[in-house]
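Inputs:
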Amino acid sequence: MSPESTNIKTMKNKTIKRLAVVLVLAAIAGARLQAAGLKLIGTNGPPVDFHGFVSQGFLYSSDYNYLGDNSSKGSFQFTEAGLNASFNPLPRTRIAAQAFTYDIGQAGKYDVVLDYALAEYAFNDYFGIRAGRIRRPQGIYNDIQDVDVARTFVLLPQGIYDARWRDFYVSLDGGEFFGTIPLKFAGSLSYEFYGGMINPSMDGGAALEISGSLPPSGHLDSIDSADEFGGQLWWNTPVDGLRFGAAGGVVPVFNFDATIQTPGGPFNPNNRNEAAFQQYSAEYLWKAWTFQSEIYLRDYFPEAATMPDTHLLTWYGSAEYRFNKWFEAGAYYTEYYGDLTQPDNSLLYQKDAALALRFDATEWWTFKIEGHYIRGTGLLQDNANNPVQGDNGWWMLAVKTTFSF
Amino acid sequence: MKMRKIIDLERGDTWPLSYDATCRAVPKRGLVRATQIRTALKMILACAVLFVGVLQASALDGVVVIVNKSVAADSISAAALKDIYTGNTKYWPDGRNVDIALLDDETGTTDAALNEVSGMGASYFRTFWQRMVFSGRGQQPDRIGDAASLVAFVASTKGAIAIVPANADLKGVKKLEVK
């Protein structure tokens, strides 16, 4: 079969998958626009809660193919859908699972994944355990970054919550301890400490990023699963609506296998490295306002002595205002630095000012429109097919609608 | 110096003292002023507590907190109620699941109370629980259209809790006193 016919077949499969996902979930949402509490037929067991969502977005960029595969001409390759169920089989016990699929540009490709599947037991408010495939807590949005209805913006600050990297960041197979400790007059302290294994996908953002960074003669063969350990603390202050967070984690060994063709034959470089991150968050809810700010630091320590350590930094500040039950507006400014040793290199930084309007037509239907003015190209991928055109600022429009129940 | 330390500890006094020739502690000149400042701070604190109390009374005025009769408690502290509505407490002491039910409130009466007990506006409250649900950490509160149906739901659902207008007919449920 020729490469062209393979490509056509792949595109057809992708289109069919997309249509199937959108139609099935839209049908579910349309048929049942309220959360369901169903009992399994023929049993007297506890009711099972079902919830789900389906989002379809549109991305248009003035200069580059950013996030969407062909966003410089307008792209509808921006779909997310999830369906979850949960129930309490025993006292203090919960079981929950969610299936999820997404497509954004070259990432996701509608692969249906088990997003989380966990059992939870809470000994009391202070201490509980959760095990299985769990959502990884990190900052305000990591564990819900693909849930469009849970935020004002279409695109979260991408230097922290990159929509393409969800396979790497969002879930892990393992367990965590969690709880909330009252601090009397000082509010309370919530904690989650986790450990487990992440399973990056060959269709995910990490694979795309690595592939894009290899020389033209290189090929990404595989990405290993990797252990990850970390935690999230939230200090819920005695001031209503004000909380501060700190998160940290480490991936002791992250490895991928690549082959680079050289005149002397295939070469397999040592790509083992240690990755670590820290994130600090602040959030304040005041009347109809929400204010948020976070700073995120990520470090890579390659095993190969010839490779330098890399230090990344992203920060943002945002403000959102709810006018009434229908409308909400928000704005943020964020800066991403892909290498802190070169903060002035526009190929490595990306500075983004965003303005968003959210319209909640009903409890179950949300519509958003958002404009971005961006300087720098540090978060572009696939640069071979997406050449940088100098360091001028560029624009992006993002539109998204979500059905949820 | 040692003697001064001992005197300070015995008196339990953290304010500045000076000592006469016989090592007897006497207040420094600044102490009078410090005492005045301390008194003023106490008054401000008392006013703040009173102000918060007035706010609480106004926001929870006109509503009552009700629970299913399976819930053993007859009263609940404001802090414990906040822990329930912010997802920190998901189970009653007997291990039964806390099932939050909400009134789709056009009047805004229970929305204001919800804001008071959770620290979140109605829309943010909905978003907050969507986050809990879609991250696998919690169960979405049930939304009921009118007060009578909400009371009936709480009456028939073990572990349920709700905020309803004070004039609602509370047949079959237990009123929970907020302390």
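The first strand of chain A starts at residue 36 and ends at 38. Flag for discussion at group meeting.
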